Amino acid sequence: MGAAIGMRMGEPIPAEVLGAMEEAEALEHLKREVEKLRLEVRGDLRRATRGAWPKPGLGDVPYWAEQDGDSAENSPEADVKD
């Protein structure tokens, strides 16, 4: 049984940028950046396996789509460039 693993590294975020934000805002910013990277890796793996893995599902939708209530408007394609 094989396993696929993927990895992405985002652009460094200067401490000054995060330091200028309120704590909650900075944490949300980091959380969204990590989520975007996760969605990119998910797409990479799906393309590499010709759609076999990962199976389509809730993992294809960023966490903030649930908060905003419109999964079509907040689809991964709207936020992640292939």
Please supply descriptive tags for the structure shown above.
single chain, about 80 residues, mainly alpha, about 0% strand, flat, disordered C terminus
Summarize the structure.
The protein has helices spanning 15-19, 23-48, 63-68, 76-79. It is an all-alpha fold and 82 residues long. The chain is flat.
**What structural class do helix, strand and pairing data support?**
mainly alpha
Name the shape in a single word. Answer: flat
Span between termini = 28 Å
The average pLDDT value, as a whole number, equals 85
Kindly give the count of domains: 1
Cα Rg: 15 Å
Uncertain regions: pLDDT < 50 for 5+ in a row? 76-82
The total count of helices amounts to 4
Q: Roughly what percent helix?
A: 40-55%
What's the order of the H and E elements?
A: HHHH
Total strands: the figure is 0
How is the biggest beta sheet arranged?
Answer: none
Which strand-content bin applies to the residues?
Answer: under 5%
Written account of the structure:
By secondary structure, the chain is mainly alpha-helical. It has one domain. 50% of the residues lie in helices and 0% in strands.
Outline the secondary-structure elements.
Elements: H1 15-19, H2 23-48, H3 63-68, H4 76-79
